[in-house]
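Q&A log
Question type: sequence-to-structure
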Amino acid sequence: MASAAAWILPSCISDPKKVSIALNRLSITGDEEDLIGDIAEVLIPRTDTPGARETSAHIFTLVMVADCLSKTEQETYLKGMRAFPDEALRITGSSFQGSPAGERLQILTAFEQDLESAGEDTRMFYETTRNYIIQGYTSSQYFLTEVKPYKLVPGAGYDGCALISIDQKTIS
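Response status: OK
Response body:
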């Protein structure tokens, strides 16, 4: 009976805010995932089309950080992510996550304008996050089917059996 309670109890008292994706090489909390989602929402907001958060660009960002950055870069990224709220507050005078969605754009704009005064870890976090969010959005299914439809190269109208005269210049 005691062993069953010891097994069940940790699941009852654990953090209710879980990360939505399993990352083997990166350890973050649900609140940290929300921070990246909030940044994504400000960078590419939802309008009459899905924004970065709706296309899971923030999840793409986490996967890229976990899979593509070295261990040292991941540690720097995590330090910067954890310092970002305090740095944003110091630079802009406003809390990023504590502000309404409408004010977050002004906070992020002011933060970007004074990015050089932020710590090196925070700069690396923000620049990496911004780049991966944009990459994630522009490689999302929505973007590649609705905004800029992807077409295979060489595309429609390609004729692989076209006659070439002996005098015609070639690419090579």
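Response note: Residues 18-147 form one domain.
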